[in-house]
Design a protein that fits this description.
GO terms for molecular function: oxidoreductase activity, acting on NAD(P)H. The protein has about 260 residues and is α+β, with helices and mostly antiparallel strands. It folds into three domains: about 70 residues, 3-Layer(bba) Sandwich (FAD/NAD(P)-binding domain), CATH 3.50.50.60; about 70 residues, FAD/NAD(P)-binding domain (3-Layer(bba) Sandwich), CATH 3.50.50.60; about 90 residues, 2-Layer Sandwich (Enolase-like, domain 1), CATH 3.30.390.30. About 25% of the residues lie in helices and about 30% in strands. It has a five-stranded antiparallel β-sheet, with helices on both faces. The structure holds flavin-adenine dinucleotide.
Length: about 260
């Protein structure tokens, strides 16, 4: 999506092929994904959703077309493949290290593995996420990897300082930042402030009646403020997200990209 956005005023035709119904669906949910899609559609980017590339064809080492699983052929001069992430931990399979079903190395809040004096940090680690009641998952953000590294280094120095961070992620599309804090995995509903149609909003992700994550577009500094509240241990109910955030939203009108 970032590449499509960057090239949208440079390339004559851009096609995005995506397995899900909207881009960013797993990370940001269908509402934010839908907005991102609309933003790029407004610049002429074409989307082929619930589709996969089954073949790339070309000559002399140069790509000429991408064939989708539907059989559709997309002429192409350049193909950018977003492969995603999976832990490079095959060499640990069958070893004493505890891994989850994706192959991520299980750690505690000190980034300790189950093997004495061995630590893991970053994308390869599945760690207890406070916002998910301690469920151990991987969160693939640059900021999280840095926080992990910090804690792991302190643990190695026997200066125990349990991980305390709120995951934070951002991306830029057409010059506007989508910001995201928390961990919305398994959210069951959302509260939207502002307007998805007008592409200016704050969206709260709710699980079991409480805010587990927040995302925004052109409503700075809302996400940072919510991240700070979550970091300080504040539990934000769905009702609070619905009701008492208007003042914060008004504050955020001082804008933002
Ligand atoms: C396309 C893409 C876009 C992204 N965009 C964003 C973004 O916009 N914002 C954001 O916050 N995050 C983003 N991320 C995620 C972010 O890059 C990662 O969360 C972060 O880089 C993780 O850091 P890390 O040190 O854990 O792993 P990595 O940066 O992956 O580093 C792991 C290193 O270990 C090496 N390695 C692997 N196996 C072995 C081995 N057996 N022996 C020795 N070395 C080994 C690898 O070669 C690699 O250099 C993106 C990721 C990708 C792939």
């Amino acid at each position: 999506m970032e590449v499509a956005s960057f090239l949208s005023d440079k390339a004559s035709t851009i096609s995005v092929v995506e397995k899900e119904a909207v881009p960013f669906q797993e990370a940001l949910g269908p509402q934010v994904g839908g907005v991102a899609m609309k933003m790029l559609q407004g610049r002429g980017v074409k989307f082929y959703m619930k589709s996969q590339v089954s073949e790339l064809r070309g000559e002399d080492g140069k790509v000429a077309e991408a064939i989708l699983d539907s059989g559709k052929k997309l002429p192409a001069d350049v193909v950018v493949v977003g492969i995603g992430v999976s832990p490079a931990s095959e060499f640990l399979k069958g070893s004493p290290f505890a891994l989850d079903s994706r192959g991520a190395v299980l750690v505690d809040l000190l980034m300790k593995t189950n093997v004495s004096r061995v630590f893991a940090a970053g994308d390869v680690a599945a760690f207890p996420v406070t916002l998910l009641g301690g469920e151990r998952i991987g969160i693939y953000h640059w900021q999280v990897a840095q926080a992990h590294g910090h804690v792991a280094a302190l643990s190695m120095l026997k200066k125990q300082s349990p991980l305390h961070t709120v995951p934070f992620f951002w991306t830029v599309l057409l010059g506007s930042s989508i910001r995201y804090a928390g961990c919305g995995k398994g959210f069951t509903e959302t509260v939207v402030k502002g307007s998805l149609e007008e592409q200016k909003f704050v969206i709260f992700y709710i699980k079991d009646g409480y805010v587990t994550a927040v995302a925004s577009l052109k409503c700075d500094p809302m996400v940072v403020m919510v991240a700070e509240a979550l970091y300080a241990g504040k539990v934000i109910s769905k009702e609070e997200a619905e009701g008492s955030w208007t003042a914060w939203l008004e504050m955020s009108q001082t804008e933002s990209k």
